[in-house]
TrEMBL record:
GO CC annotation, single: membrane
Cell compartments where the protein resides: Membrane
Gene source species: Flavobacterium sp. WC2429
Magnesium transporter MgtE intracellular domain sequence ranges: 191-271
UniProt cross-references to InterPro entries, sorted A to Z: MFS_trans_sf (IPR036259), Mg_transptr_MgtE_intracell_dom (IPR006668), NO3_transporter (IPR044772)
Entries under Gene3D superfamilies matching the protein: MFS general substrate transporter like domains
Domain of life: Bacteria
UniProt membrane topology term: Multi-pass membrane protein
Stretches that traverse the bilayer: 23-44, 64-82, 94-114, 120-141, 162-186, 295-313, 334-355, 400-419, 431-450, 470-490, 502-521
SUPFAM superfamilies assigned to the protein according to its UniProt record, in alphabetical order: MFS general substrate transporter, MgtE N-terminal domain-like
Keywords: Membrane, Transmembrane, Transmembrane helix
Listed name of the protein: MFS transporter
GO terms, molecular function: nitrate transmembrane transporter activity
């Protein structure tokens, strides 16, 4: 079956109406469906990690954030590769193989989550492998850019990127639903601790009995539990009792801190401990779930899309070696566009990865704490929808103004998060505003994603091959967003109990990116109005 098209001239109106339009829209339809699965499988780990402690996986808070962060690291690396392979292998081969290879991480994760003894290093490998899905964007989007005429590029790219981004919401929305569906294997028991009830148990139990039971826990696990205590609280307690003995430190902690840290460290261990303190208590809640279904449901869809990609996609005859494609790096606008896209898509992807764990570790310790997965999918959903809508707007008003507006929106959101203490919360009363601000930031990232991808083909209009390469490159660097956000926010929360420092850094970066966009692409008389 022939892979390469004989010719491709989308700016020729006769060619477009007679031949090009049908092929382009068919390609967009298939590649967009596969891109949905790419994004969904890329973010699979961000939704699974919040369930791992309750299933008996004894990973630390930092390790959980690492599992959410590594897919972003992998995607950034793989997107750099994807940036240069399209002219070499063509749309048909790239999309088909990229869809097929995602079976490796989803099947691997499906089996790994069924065994709480699965070592952390194996989960890290599987988390890295989910980056296959994140890498696709940097070849899929340049491909779409080549298939459509200039007047439809913003619309086509907005549709593909926006609908493709829905994959993030799909992963976070479908996961809670399929946990009750037995696709394969036996159910696992998920344990949750009600902090309010646990606090009552500690209040009604003697300190001597608490110390005696805590001392029977393995020393390594004792340290893991106490590692969840805020450093200031730990220092204050150790100083007041003049001791660093783990058991004495534990019983000297405030009631609410005891209840929180034992749940955060390991709910299964907390179950054993609390049952010994008070048999038949109401603090421990167990529920059977099919955690493996969160991964296995992708398998048939990936197989179907692999077949469709092979039989219905073709490739545009535009070949260039990797060396020839490196010319994009001699253009200063490649670097300016990289900064602006890190602000838009980097923030979208970064918040998507970190949002569930932020809910869990910033607000999960309060009474009546929210389930992260009930809220997490709304952000990517809003960001994806606004990207689609504003793809059409970008074609009418230009992309640069939308990118500037996005910078102001993200900046305003970050300022509110810091100034109102929403990422260093003291009560659940702050949670609604926290969610509202994060969702607002997601909305603006979608606007900016549409704006930037309208800008790039115009900024590099003198060379469409370069324009495609820049789209791939900027997307590659922005794909590090999940790694940067999850890693730095995780470290921030672990060290300080909140994420103020991270969002202050985001404020400074957003000011830089917005200024660059306004100066070079948006202001009157700018160098590259777009």
């Amino acid at each position: 079956m022939k892979t390469w098209l004989d010719k491709w001239e989308p700016e020729d109106e006769k060619f477009w109406n007679e031949t090009g339009s049908k092929i382009a829209w068919r390609t967009l339809f298939i590649t967009t469906l596969t891109l949905i699965l790419s994004f969904a499988s890329w973010f699979i780990m961000s939704v699974i990690v919040v369930k791992l402690p309750g299933l008996g996986f004894s990973y630390t808070k930092n390790q959980l954030f690492w599992l959410a962060a590594v897919p972003g690291l992998a995607a950034g690396i793989l997107r750099i590769i994807h940036t240069f392979i399209l002219p070499i292998f063509g749309t048909r081969h790239v999309v088909t193989f990229a869809t097929l290879i995602k079976l490796l991480p989803v099947i691997g994760i499906g089996f790994a989550v069924m065994n709480p003894a699965t070592p952390f290093w194996l989960f890290m490998i599987l988390a890295f492998a989910t980056g296959f899905g994140g890498g696709d964007f940097s070849s899929y989007m340049p491909s779409t850019s080549l298939f459509f005429p200039k007047r439809l590029k913003g619309t086509a790219l907005g549709i593909q990127a926006g609908i493709g981004n829905f994959g993030v919401s799909l992963a976070q929305f479908v996961t809670p639903v399929v946990l009750s569906v037995a696709l394969y294997g036996a159910p696992s028991t998920f344990t949750k601790i009600e902090v309010k009830e646990a606090k009552q148990i500690f209040a009604n139990t003697s300190l001597e009995k608490q110390a005696e039971l805590f001392s029977t826990i393995e020393t390594k696990k004792q340290k893991a539990i106490l590692s969840n205590v805020d450093s200031k609280v730990m220092d204050s307690v150790c100083k007041s009792i003049n001791s660093k003995d783990n058991s004495q430190v534990f019983v000297s902690l405030p009631l609410n801190v005891k209840a929180k840290i034992i749940d955060n460290a390991n709910p299964k261990l907390a179950q054993i401990f609390l049952n010994k303190l008070h048999q038949g208590n109401k603090a421990v809640i167990n529920k059977d779930i099919y955690i493996q279904s969160a991964a296995f449901w992708y398998v048939p869809l990936l197989i179907i899309m692999t077949i469709l990609s092979w039989f219905y996609l073709r490739s545009i005859p535009m070949k260039a070696s990797i060396k020839e494609q490196m010319d994009i790096f001699s253009n200063k606008h490649t670097w300016y566009c990289t900064i602006t896209y890190v602000m838009t898509f980097g923030t979208f992807a970064g918040l998507s990865a970190a949002f569930p764990l932020m809910i869990k570790f910033l607000y999960g310790e309060f009474p009546d704490a929210p389930d992260p997965l009930k809220y997490a999918f709304y952000g990517p959903l809003i960001g994806s929808a606004s990207r689609i809508v504003f793809g059409f707007v970008a074609d009418k008003v230009g992309g640069a103004i939308l990118t500037t507006i996005t910078g102001l929106g993200i900046l305003g959101g970050a300022v509110i998060l810091v100034s109102q203490g929403l990422v260093t919360p003291t009560s659940m009363e702050q949670f609604p505003l926290f969610v509202g601000v994060i969702l607002m930031m997601f909305f603006f990232t979608g606007v900016g994603n549409a704006g930037t991808f309208r800008q790039y083909p115009i900024i590099f209009s003198e060379n469409q091959r370069q324009a495609a390469g820049v789209i791939g490159w900027t997307a590659a660097i922005a794909a590090f967003g999940p790694f940067i956000f999850a890693f730095l926010i995780g470290n921030n929360i672990t060290a300080n109990g909140g994420a103020n420092q991270f969002f202050i850094g985001l404020i400074l970066f957003t000011i830089l990116a917005t200024t660059i966009n306004w100066w070079f692409y948006n202001r009157k008389g700018c160098e590259k109005p777009s």
